[in-house]
Design a protein that fits this description.
With 263 residues, the chain is α+β, with helices and mostly antiparallel strands. The protein has nine helices and five strands.
Length: 263
């Protein structure tokens, strides 16, 4: 009798779990595919970014929802239920934060690709967006677990000076990279020449260094602080077209008036 009751008690939780898997598959294979076809017909690229980042994650969220519904219908102790509930909550918040960060980075890259000259497409901008959103997600997780973040923020404020001193070179490169991007004096794709003789095309401005691809296809890595203080000749600004002086010799017997007209 107890065995039949045990089996009967597991039917509903298993039904919720199986139903969540089925619903997740339907949403992934049918709903998202239809939304993707609709998004491809629109001019706005943002919907494509959102849908591409949701693929695979929505199925995971459906499964988590099924596990939660199954737990609700299983007679377990309250303390164990609370622990499982917090674990699922942390997983959901962490996954949503990661997806939101990727969507935000996709929007930033899309905007940078369209608005050329306004926001250069560099890894430092996407990394900053990632760090800000992930840090916010971590604070939300701590708050949802009942951990007060106020003392932590206070401790970070007090320890900020020690961290700044320890990471002086790193922070110097970070702020120098931000200065380079905001000043718009150097951008990815520009052909530059440094006062030390290195020359090539700027490929990326990261949080620590700037990479330059030389004509010989070698990569030149320059710390942002060095680049910010260097004398740079940018051959792509203010315009990519430039004038070049070429010495041309003519015969002494040439007609000078004709030479002036031709040159």
């Amino acid at each position: 009798m107890s065995e039949s009751l045990g089996i009967t008690g597991l039917i509903l939780p298993l039904a919720f779990f199986a139903g969540s898997i089925l619903a997740g598959l339907v949403f992934e294979k049918i709903v998202l595919r239809k939304l993707k076809k609709i998004a491809e017909k629109t001019k706005w690229k943002g919907d494509e970014i959102v849908i591409s980042e949701l693929r695979g994650k929505t199925f995971f969220w459906f499964v988590i929802a099924g596990i939660y519904l199954a737990i609700l219908n299983i007679p377990i102790r309250e303390d164990i239920f609370n622990i499982l509930q917090k674990i699922l909550l942390v997983i959901i918040i962490a996954s949503v934060t990661i997806v939101f960060a990727r969507i935000a980075v996709g929007f930033v890259n899309s905007y940078a690709g369209k608005a050329q000259g306004v926001l250069p497409l560099t890894s430092i901008s996407s990394n900053l967006v990632n760090v800000l959103i992930l840090a916010t997600g971590i604070l939300i997780i701590l708050q949802s677990l009942g951990i007060s973040i106020t003392p932590m923020l206070t401790a970070f404020g007090v320890g900020g000076l020690a961290v700044a001193l320890a990471l002086q070179d790193t922070l110097s490169n970070l702020f120098s990279g931000l200065h380079i991007i905001i000043s718009k004096q150097v951008a990815p794709g520009d052909y530059v020449k440094l006062d030390t003789g290195e020359a090539g095309y700027v490929t990326d401005i990261a949080w620590r260094n700037t990479t330059i691809r030389a004509i010989s296809n070698n990569m030149i890595v320059v710390p942002n602080s060095k680049l910010a203080s260097a004398i740079i000749t940018n051959y792509c600004q203010p315009e990519k077209e430039m004038s070049v002086l070429i010495q041309v010799g003519v015969s002494y017997d040439s007609d000078l008036e004709k030479v002036e007209k031709v040159t």
